[in-house]
Amino acid sequence: MSTVGEICAKAREASRASATLSTEVKDRALGAMADALIERVGFLVEANAEDVSRAREGSASNTVIDRLTLTEGRIASMSDGLRAVARQPDPVGEVVGGWKRPNGLLIEKVRVPLGVVAVIYEARPNVTADVSGLCLKSGNATILRGSSIALSSNRAIVDVLRDALSTAGAPKDAIQLIPDSGRESAIELMQAKGSIDLLVPRGGKDLIQAIESNATVPFIIDGDGNCHVYVDRSADPQMATDIVVNAKTQRPSVCNAAETLLVHEEIADKWLPGLLDDLSAAGVEIRGDERTRSLWPEASAATDEDWGTEYLDLKIAVRVVPSLDDAIAHVNRWGTSNADAIVTQDVGAARRFTTEVDSGSVFVNASTRFSDGGEFGYGAEIGISTQKLHARGPMGLRELTTTKYVVWGEGQVRS
Amino acid sequence: MSTVGEICAKAREASRASATLSTEVKDRALGAMADALIERVGFLVEANAEDVSRAREGSASNTVIDRLTLTEGRIASMSDGLRAVARQPDPVGEVVGGWKRPNGLLIEKVRVPLGVVAVIYEARPNVTADVSGLCLKSGNATILRGSSIALSSNRAIVDVLRDALSTAGAPKDAIQLIPDSGRESAIELMQAKGSIDLLVPRGGKDLIQAIESNATVPFIIDGDGNCHVYVDRSADPQMATDIVVNAKTQRPSVCNAAETLLVHEEIADKWLPGLLDDLSAAGVEIRGDERTRSLWPEASAATDEDWGTEYLDLKIAVRVVPSLDDAIAHVNRWGTSNADAIVTQDVGAARRFTTEVDSGSVFVNASTRFSDGGEFGYGAEIGISTQKLHARGPMGLRELTTTKYVVWGEGQVRS
Predict the structure, then answer these.
(1) pTM value?
(2) Do B28 and B173 fall within a single domain?
(3) Is the distance from CB of B137 to CB of B30 less than 8 angstroms?
(4) Which stretches does DSSP call E strand in B171-233?
(5) Inter-chain touch A198–B389, beta carbons under 8 Å
(6) Where does residue A393 fall: left (phi above 0), alpha (psi -120 to 50 degrees), or beta otherwise?
(7) ipTM value
């Protein structure tokens, strides 16, 4: 049996045990994992130093090295993250619904773990702890496959977490790391049909493409975020400015940052030039349609490519629209169904936008940057689904479960 | 644009409209559809006669011709089915959950339609009406692709239903039929990524295999049902007999019929021979393990192949197990996670079986034959999911929806 095959077999066995762990044992294990990260901080920093020096020799960019580096402070955050997951309610066993049939059958729909969850991810070693914690609390076994650049760090973290599992009475093999990071093992994981119940890729376009062309196991895509802010004619101008500036500039490199601004023509003349001055002063490059450029001539001309692009950068596309309908149509035509916002004082406009915009998260008078598991109160997040099936939007513990019907009878047979 | 491409484009447009139809309009449309089937029964029977005579010429089996044939009675059942769907609660707009964050953001998780649902199915023309009704009530647009053998019938049914939609003020293109039934159009549908939000195959292994190897759109598999009944040592013997006989013989050709019987050794001596006499008298062929054959020598020897086979026929595999643990392990090893039952008077055994057996539906003291959308009270069913993601077990209206987060703020930005 291949290494991946062996790991999958052990994970399946561990998943049977972790599915029935009590909340008490799981929370104790999460506490032990959090403690162990702090106690063994020296060991972790040392292992991480190997990765960092190898990355430096391989002339990785400063951004990559920053993401890779584990400090005492970052390890403390990982530890806090595990404690936050422990404080979340246990999703396993939740009775989602139930009803009695005319023949007396009592049908209960109960939340149960998925089984084996595999995560393929890139540089950040903190994902190793986050994902392990979320999967354990939701009663699953996890298979982790990080990137080669972080292999020593991930090995060390997983060692520490597995030891802690044992001391708390949870199965060690509920957390396993694929010990190499070659392409073959990733492909093998993607094709381990029947062995893996959910695969979550956390990475860029290349990884997602590889999953889409190779995976035979069920997966959830954490995809693009071409997010919009629509400023309605009834918007409070100051609120609109605050939200657009925040959504665009607070952290432009992430999927919930705004990429396109739509402005109702009745507010554009008065409000838009000042807003674009502010954005420009904050270093944002402006690309506008004709109306925008007539109001703010420094803007370059936006093309269809701009409407369809997730810049992930200090750039914004701006369009003046004649109506709410046009704004909704634009978002549904060009958006990626991730997160979109309306700024308005008109309850009718808010209701129509939230109903008709086909996105995972729709915001009224708030920044798109809140589309995030932590901000939603999920403790940590496994990702943000851009799919419609199973989970949509920020994914927490519940999204790592499935349901089962439990039907109680007294001898009923079907006639 | 190809025919399938045009149909997909019209469906997307119709889906925007059907997503926001009021419950009143949807129920009125379902009523109009139900009425129209009755009013135009002559037209439908005539169109169906063409299919039936073509099938006879092509020397289709009697079973196929029976499934294909539309009588007045069957058309009345289709009509009743649409009325039953109208009586179901509207899933669209249901607030699944909601909470307030410390920063004042109000997060609501709201049920919304998937968008465009495509169904590929085989002979039975009643599926055309069932699926159309379920998709309309759940606010989706439907693309139907039936089999060539039923093409005239399906065309006629869809014509009638579309006319009824118009009269009720719903978009006609919310129900469309692919006008040919060649393999190419099926493959094109499976690969219409971005145009189809969910594809449901209703058919045999070949169709499922084609979907698994070709589909790029999201799909839900309605797969095998290798169902088990486990008779615990504490079972009521008469109840056990009734349930096993019902689960095996009431309709052996369907996915929720029992295929394997597991019997606790402490009850086997007294109960099993009489049960096997009854099954045998009902025409069931018995394949048993060694213990079974020592108690009932006429049984032929069961092999691993028997434990793994969905007979869909009057055959049963029988194994005597030394414990509840062995029964659970057998089901998890050989089952297909569809529907499994325990017969027991012991509440501890019932709780362990329902918790540890990893199936979509687990029954206590009831026949596996109840794993069915109608029996669960869903009015009609779109299928029985054997997946863990999105939907598991019998699928009704809710399973044709996704959710969306609607977040209400008062100008919140992220710091």
Answers:
(1) 0.92
(2) yes
(3) yes
(4) 175-177, 198-202, 227-231
(5) yes
(6) left
(7) 0.93
Contact criterion met (CB below 8 Å) for B186 and B7: no
Cβ contacts of A112 on chain B, cutoff 8 Å = 358
Which chain A residues touch B394 with a CB distance below 8 Å?
405
Domain holding B308: CATH number? 3.40.309.10
Could you read off the pLDDT of B235-249 as tens digits, one per residue? Answer: 999 999 999 999 999
Q: Are residues B205 and B239 in the same domain?
A: no
In a domain, A9, yes or no: yes
- Do B320 and B398 belong together in one domain? no
Element holding A30 (H helix, E strand): helix A23-39
Please name every residue paired with A228 in a beta bridge, in sequence order, or none if there are none: A260, A340
Could you tell me if B203 and B314 lie in one domain?
A: no
Please provide the distance, in angstroms rounded to a whole number, between the alpha carbons at the two ends of chain A. Answer: 48
Domain shared by B137 and B241, yes or no? no
**Facing B392 at nearest CB: one of A105, A404, A412:** A404
Say if residues A397 and A365 touch (Cβ distance below 8 Å).
no
pLDDT exceeding 90 applies to what percent of chain A?
87
Q: Which residues does A346 contact at the CB level (< 8 Å), separation at least 6?
A: A232, A233, A234
For the cut 80, the answer to whether the pLDDT of residue B229 exceeds it is yes
Confidence bin at B347 (pLDDT 50/70/90): very high
Contacts of residue A383 in chain B, CB cutoff 8 Å? Answer: none
Specify whether the CB–CB gap between A329 and B374 falls below 8 A.
Answer: no
Whether residues B11 and B144 fall in one domain: yes
Please report, for the domain that includes residue A139, its CATH number.
Answer: 3.40.605.10
B175-177 sheet: strands from edge to edge: B175-177, B141-145, B116-121, B198-202
Residue to mutate among B370, B382, B395, with most A CBs inside 10 A, is B370
Range from A87-91, A219-223, B29-33, B264-268 carrying the lowest mean pLDDT: A219-223
- What is the gyration radius of the CA atoms in chain B, in angstroms? 24
Sign of the torsion angle spanned by Cα atoms B68, B74, B78, B81? negative
- Contact list, A414 vs chain B (CB under 8 Å): 246, 250, 367, 369-370, 375
For residue B64, what are the CA distances in angstroms to B52, B59, B122, B206, B384?
10, 10, 10, 17, 22
SS3 label, residue B326: helix
The answer to the question of residue B138 being in a domain is yes
Residue B384 lies in a domain: no
Distance CA A286, CA A277 (A): 10
Q: Give the single-character DSSP code of A180.
A: -
pLDDT in tens, B294-339: 999 999 999 999 999 999 999 999 999 999 999 999 999 999 989 9
Mean pLDDT of chain B: 95
How do residues B54-106 score in pLDDT, each as one tens digit? 999 998 888 889 889 999 999 999 999 999 999 999 999 999 999 999 999 99
Q: What is the pLDDT of residue A57?
A: 94
The answer to whether the CB atoms of B355 and A20 lie below 8 A apart is yes
Q: Contact at 8 Å (CB) between B208 and B221?
A: yes
Structural domain span for residue B258: 227-374
pLDDT tens-digit profile of A311-349?
A: 999 999 999 999 999 999 999 999 998 999 999 999 999
* Main-chain dihedrals φ then ψ at residue B105, nearest 5 degrees: -65, 135
Q: Are A167 and A32 in contact (CB under 8 A)?
A: yes
On whether both A214 and A239 belong to a single domain, the answer is: no
Considering only the C-alpha atoms of chain B, give the largest distance between any 2 of them, rounded to a whole number of Å: 78
Does A84 reside within a domain?
yes
* Record: contact B404-A389, CB cut-off 8 A: no
pLDDT at A122: 84
Structurally, chain B folds into a number of domains equal to 2
Terminal CA-CA length for chain B: 48
Asked if B331 and B401 sit in the same domain, the reply is: no
Nearest CA in chain B to A406: B362
